[in-house]
Specification:
The longest helix is centred in the last third of the chain and has 12 residues. Strand 3 and strand 4 form a beta hairpin. The chain is globular, with a radius of gyration of 15 Å. The protein starts with 19 loop residues before the first helix and ends in a 7-residue tail after the last helix. It has a two-stranded antiparallel ribbon. Strands 3-4 form a two-stranded antiparallel ribbon. It has a single domain, classed as CBS-domain (Roll). The model has no long low-confidence stretch (mean pLDDT about 85). The chain has six helices and four strands, in the order H-E-E-H-H-H-E-E-H-H. By secondary structure, the chain is of the alpha+beta class.
Length: about 140
């Protein structure tokens, strides 16, 4: 089994000029917590998470209006042929819950921590990855 067998392929992406409001509405309508940001060639250039909107927009007064203002620019991704064990390790190591899947530089899907649970053989990987993801990366004050 490969990541391509677990990932969601019908992914809605934003562009860097998409409004934060539009992205939030898409998240609500699709019941997702992240929207990849792509350039005009469908290359992933960032990702906007629900947390990004809260911390980089709402908490700062809500005056940022475009995806480029709130997106995480350092995107960790995998190829569709990546083994799920490796994808889970990458998610845990980078403390991320969603992993864009990229082939030949183009977005082809997204793998979320919940996708592992759809296959009984990867329930342990999901649990281990979630445990690592949920561990604070710095001391709480």
């Amino acid at each position: 089994m490969k990541v391509r067998d677990l990932m969601t392929t019908n992914v809605t992406a934003a562009n860097i000029n998409s409004s934060v409001t539009e992205i939030a509405k898409n998240m609500k309508d699709l019941n997702v917590g992240a929207i990849p940001v792509c350039d005009n060639s469908n290359n992933v250039v960032g990702i906007v998470t629900d947390r990004d909107i809260v911390l980089r927009n709402v908490a700062d007064g809500g005056n940022k209006t475009k995806a480029q203002d709130v997106m995480s620019g350092h995107v960790v991704s995998v190829a569709p042929d990546t083994h799920p064990h490796e994808a889970a390790r990458i998610m845990a190591e980078n403390q991320i819950r969603r992993l864009p899947v990229v082939e030949n530089g183009k977005l082809v899907g997204i793998l979320s921590i919940g996708d592992f649970a759809t296959q009984d053989i990867y329930v342990n990987e999901a649990g281990e990855a979630l445990s690592s993801i949920s561990t604070p990366s710095r001391p709480m004050k």
